[in-house]
Fold this sequence. Notes:
Elements: H1 12-17, H2 19-32, H3 39-52, E1 56-60, H4 63-74, E2 81-84, H5 91-98, E3 102-105, H6 117-126, E4 128-130, E5 137-139, E6 146-149, H7 161-170, E7 174-178, E8 186-189, E9 194-197, E10 204-208, E11 222-226, H8 229-238, E12 243-245, E13 248-249, H9 260-294, E14 307-308, E15 314-317, H10 321-330, H11 360-368, E16 369-372, H12 380-396
Parallel strand pairs: 2-3, 2-6, 6-7, 7-10
Antiparallel strand pairs: 1-11, 4-5, 8-9, 8-14, 10-11, 12-13, 15-16
Helix pairs in contact: 2-9, 3-9, 4-5, 4-8, 6-7, 9-12, 10-12
Amino acid sequence: MSTGEIPFLELVTVHRELREELRSVFETALDTAGFIGGPVVQEFERDFSEFCESKVCVGVASGTDALRFALVAAGVQPGDTVVTVPLTFIATTEAISQVGARPDFVDVDARTYTMDPEKLRVYLETECSPDRRTGRVVSKRTGSPVTAVIPVHLYGQIADMDPLLELTARYNLILIEDACQAHGAEYFSKKEARWRKAGSMGHAAAFSFYPGKNLGACGEAGAVTTDDERLARHCQMLRDHGQSRKYFHDFEGYNGRLDAMQAGVLGVKLRHLAKWNEQRRERARSYDELFADSGATVALPHVPSWSRPVYHLYVVQVADRERLKKDLAAARIGSGIHYPIPLHLATAYETLGFRPGDFPVAERAASRVLSLPMFPTLAPEQQRRVVTAVVQSAGRGE
């Protein structure tokens, strides 16, 4: 059996295969001096909105910008409370804080790791009180009105959106999808009796095109998708210093533009994304089958009937994560932890006053999850090596 290194993520092959197309993007930028905005950005925005089945896409500089701009454009005000989950990357809560709002949390579902709709319902009914003057619910924890909810489509799987959308509509809340890990993931809406794409269901959605994502730039990039043209126009101005036209600033904005070379790279890769996502699904099925045959005591990714995930990550849960990670490294197999510290316990949010035990499902997952190698070109023999190493490590602990 091969003993070569199995990387956690492999980005060289895809860029080697697309080298000539990517070079043409760079050459076009040099030949036209079209570096910021312009037709290349507009073409990608059009194509990505079509891919996501949304009306409008606004390209921005990063996924964090996408979340921040979407919150501002949707109407979240300084002092508001925005509810999300503690098991996510800190960009989700940074965006909330950076618009002047206060992040608050509800726990995740134990199997999908995404926002638990029942926990959100309990939060709104028991941890908030109605403000008869405004009609808003006010968080008892923060003392401020709850105006928005950000479910995170984690690891490539969409949150259970029907009940979340029903709750946010009932309480007149903004729903922003954090779709930064879910390019092309789908959700079957029983209410609408059809499959919906990530980025097409909330008031707006945020995507990251960080290089390791299913659709990754060769640098930083992001996008907002929405069906609300007013919201999209606000995002377009926010990304460009609040300009309605050159040197006419209607408000203070940011420098958060998507540059043309990254848009061109993304446009090239977007044509391959459906194929890459299907390859990831095939790799996930192979992992599932190999683990099922092994009899290992490893919790595998759960896929509800309403979900078509795109496996940005293949995440297992084990009792002794640190030993497994060490054993995999000894076998020259890469792995990752997404994420080791739930955000309510992060040093950055000590002042919010949360304590261990506040969100036990997220805390348990954070101490046990491990991401195994996952990329479209992952070979069957590599997957067999990974599973063998995991089984051997788990067996040592029994």
